[in-house]
Amino acid sequence: MHPYIAAAIGGVLIGISAVMLMALSGRIAGISGIIGGLLPPKPVTDRSWRFAFILGLVAAPEILRALTGDNHIGPPTVGTASLILAGLLVGAGTTLGGGCTSGHGICGISRISPRSIAAVATFMVTAVVTLFLVRHVLGG
Amino acid sequence: MREIVAALLTGFLFGLGLCLSGMTSPAVVQGFLDIAGDWNPALLFVMAAGVAVTFIGYRVLVPKSRPLWASGFSLPTATAIDAPLLSGAAIFGVGWGLAGYCPGPALVSLASGRTSVIIFVVSMLAGMILVRWMRMGGWAKMKGTPAEELP
């Protein structure tokens, strides 16, 4: 399958998931928010569905591998120090900004939320600029 | 119980979508973000298809009064485009560009069992906990100053 077609099919599945979660449970499929509610200090009280969602998420590549022989997970492209720094920034940034590529990107844009559109424009720009600096200016 | 089933199923579909779309490969994600390099538009197809389905589905398939399996909707109430939103999004983007992982694909990639992915996810959780802790008063609370009294 052409990678662009696979990408579009993947996008459709993500969309179906977001619509189902809203139609059935009335919730936004925002991954950073779903994880965040489980963390200290003061985790939220509705933890069961969050664990279930994460379980489904992590089970997906395993089942894909059982069916097709490939889990579609690629290796990291950067070293340990960069992964630690990037992880801290992704965690802190999504919590401060109230969402990531799923909550703001897929769900927020679909709700035509001005906050989400502003957030997506912002993180797209800083992601592109960061990678440009790392790869083409610093020569990483 | 029905909410657990809904979450398990939607989590699974979401994870499947991330895997098939290529978003669980940091190289593909960075290929999209690296506009000055060998640009890979794959992510554009993921976003376009995902938003199109969600946009239509939210309007056509989601009941207006209440969700099918829950008593009410849990939607964000904030409307202001404020400093935390923009600075948070900016910080997230730097991390996303640096490693090519956003929260969903990072969690899904845990299934690979790679130590490097575990290191990323643990760091991400630490970043989340840090901001949650700071929001609830952080240092000020430890020193006994109510958070509301801070500038």
Could you provide a short overview of the structure?
By secondary structure, chain A is an all-alpha fold. Chain A is built from six helices and no strands. The model of chain B has no long low-confidence stretch (mean pLDDT 93).
Structure characterization notes:
The complex is a heterodimer of chains A (140) and B (151). The mean pLDDT of chain A is 96. Helix content of chain A is 73%, strand content 0%. Chain A contains 6 helices and no strands. Chain B has a domain at 2-79. Chain B is 65% helix and 0% strand. The longest helix of chain B has 21 residues, at 115-135. At the A-B interface, helix 1, helix 2, helix 3, helix 4 and helix 5 of A face helix 1, helix 2, helix 3, helix 4 and helix 5 of B.
Task: Please supply descriptive tags for the structure shown above.
heterodimer, A: 140 residues, B: mainly alpha, 7 helices, 0% strand
Indicate the overall shape of chain B.
globular
The helix content of chain A is over 70%
Query: Number of DSSP helices of chain A?
Result: 6
Q: Give the fraction of residues assigned to helices of chain B.
A: 55-70%
Strand portion of chain A:
under 5%
Secondary structure blueprint with pairings:
The complex is a heterodimer of chains A (140) and B (151).
Chain A: H1 3-25, H2 31-36, H3 48-68, H4 80-97, H5 101-110, H6 114-137
Helix pairs in contact in A: 5-6
Chain B: H1 2-21, H2 26-33, H3 42-60, H4 83-99, H5 103-109, H6 115-135, H7 138-143
Helix pairs in contact in B: 5-6
